[in-house]
Amino acid sequence: MNTIRTQVAIIGGGPAGLLLSQLLERKGIDTVVLERRSRDYVLARIRAGVLESGAVDLIREAGVGARMQREGIVHDGTFIAASNRGFRIDFRQLTGGSVMVYGQTELTQDLYQARDAMNGKILHEVDEVRIHGVDSDAAHVSFRWQGRERRIACDYVAGCDGFHGISRNTIPASVLREFERVYPFGWLGLLSATPPVSDELIYASHARGFALCSMRNPALSRYYLQVPLQDSVEQWSDELFWEELRRRLPAAAAETLVTGESVEKSIAPLRSFVAEPMRWGRLFLCGDAAHIVPPTGAKGLNLAASDVYYLSRALLQHYHEQDDHGIDDYSATALSRVWKAERFSWSMTRLLHRFPDQSDFDLRMQQAELEYLESSLAAQTALAENYIGLPY
Ligand code: FAD
Ligand code: DHB
Fold this sequence. Notes:
Blueprint: E1 2-5, E2 8-11, H1 15-26, E3 31-34, H2 39-44, E4 50-51, H3 53-61, H4 66-71, E5 73-75, E6 77-82, E7 85-90, H5 91-95, E8 99-101, H6 104-117, E9 121-123, E10 127-132, E11 140-145, E12 148-153, E13 156-159, E14 177-192, E15 202-205, E16 211-217, E17 220-228, H7 238-248, H8 251-256, E18 262-276, E19 279-280, E20 283-285, E21 291-292, H9 300-321, H10 325-352, H11 360-375, H12 377-387
Parallel strand pairs: 1-12, 2-3, 2-13, 3-9, 6-15, 13-20
Antiparallel strand pairs: 4-8, 5-8, 6-7, 10-11, 11-12, 14-17, 14-18, 15-16, 16-17, 18-21, 19-20
Helix pairs in contact: 1-6, 1-9, 9-10, 11-12
Residues 11-17, 34-37, 42, 47-48, 104, 126, 129, 160-162, 164-166, 268, 287-288, 295, 298-301, 304 line the site of flavin-adenine dinucleotide (FAD).
């Protein structure tokens, strides 16, 4: 068997794994990244688009912020629309902060480029990845690559392999606790090479269901519609999508919407999920491997970034200062922030979507909450400080 040795074995070459690898290697800590898919596959996935300022700072610290700095769009506020009316939440005025619109796909590309420039070890299309001995001093990872059995001996394993990865289930069932809510609808997303309908995002609550207008750049728009879970992409022609989006937007936006052929269209289910603990012995969970949020509020990628922040600090403290406090506290520190983002994403989802079993009372509560948000600077400030991201 072919065995290599590294300090930190990283399972998963998504944003969490790549960012962790980049931050550690820049400080002299050796890593190997194992990714199940090809690089082209990873780079074709269209996912998140909004970065909190904490994530932006971390990306800069990792030395991969140059293109984001040039091409990313700073947003100082967002629109909330309901019943053909809308109001703006001014992040800058209420909190002094802002967010950056820059696609996860672009960020992942920048990370791969930076890792290549440093001769980073990333193995693609690995199979049968298994984690061993993380509850002992002989941690290692076994896998198949290019038709051969391989093994990585390591000090630590970072499980950055997303919700469907294998890392989380390495933690014994007697230790692992999982908390979950599955929502009775999904988001149908459409990417189109058209100018965005608005300079800022529009989160729209409507009797027919939620809609979101987002963007990637001045010539590329990303729109979402709440759809029943049973719907398939094939049922939604581009024409149907645009027609439905227009119906759910305030008239002023619907009239100026520029439509075009879709570049990508996909349906994502909505789920809230947290696994505890996020550390077991020498294994750390990071990003979607440990938690999922419904996308309302754009927290998924940002939570992966804050986990990476805490974990990179903890590992640097271990290797450079022989101090294990960060490692010991990693799970509690990360989870404290994770649960607050879970709460925010759940509350935004509840506020803006139509639920199949909603009673008239529930609808009135939703309406009252929206009116309160519109009229109260205190409520707007609470939303804004969560949206721009709670401090690390
Ligand atoms: P991932 O990006 O999932 O990366 C994990 C990596 O591990 C993948 O590359 C995977 O191939 C690899 N992997 C899995 N299993 C193994 C294995 N056994 N061995 C080796 N490698 C493995 N968030 C938002 O904020 N806004 C959005 O609009 C949004 N849209 C989304 C749409 C979809 C369809 C999905 C799935 C997620 C979306 N998210 C969104 C969430 C956001 O994209 C994630 O939170 C973010 O990708 C988390 O990064 P990660 O690195 O933790 O996980
Ligand atoms: C995007 C996705 C979100 O979930 C969100 O809240 C804002 C923007 C996006 O893909 O652009």
